[in-house]
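To the wet lab folks,

You asked to see what we're planning to order before we commit. Fair enough. Below is the target structure as tokens, and below that is the sequence we designed to fit it. If anything looks off to you, flag it before the synthesis order goes out.
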């Protein structure tokens, strides 16, 4: 497994896919920062500026080579491929 330099999950408490993503990451022992955009509008704006999207979940993964990947939704296959899971 490749441990990312930084992994941010933008989510809301009522989002089922957000819970599934965070539970899956936890089960795979991937460390991540969870940002609740409902409670932190400033970070929500940050997410929108980076992605052009308002929907959650959004993953922003900074890999060891500093390359940043943005993943919209719970794209388990893409995340697994990026992290070597």
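Sequence we intend to order:
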């Amino acid at each position: 497994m490749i441990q990312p330099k930084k992994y941010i999950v933008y989510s809301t408490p009522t989002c089922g896919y957000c819970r599934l993503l965070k539970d899956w990451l936890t089960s795979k022992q991937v460390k991540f920062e969870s940002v609740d955009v409902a409670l932190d509008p400033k970070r929500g704006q940050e997410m929108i500026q980076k992605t052009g999207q308002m929907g959650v979940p959004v993953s922003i993964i900074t890999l060891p080579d500093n390359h940043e990947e943005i993943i919209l939704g719970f794209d388990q296959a893409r995340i697994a491929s990026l992290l070597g899971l």
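Structural context that might help your review: The two ends are 6 Å apart (CA to CA). Helices lie at 16-27, 41-51, 76-83.

Thanks,
Computational group
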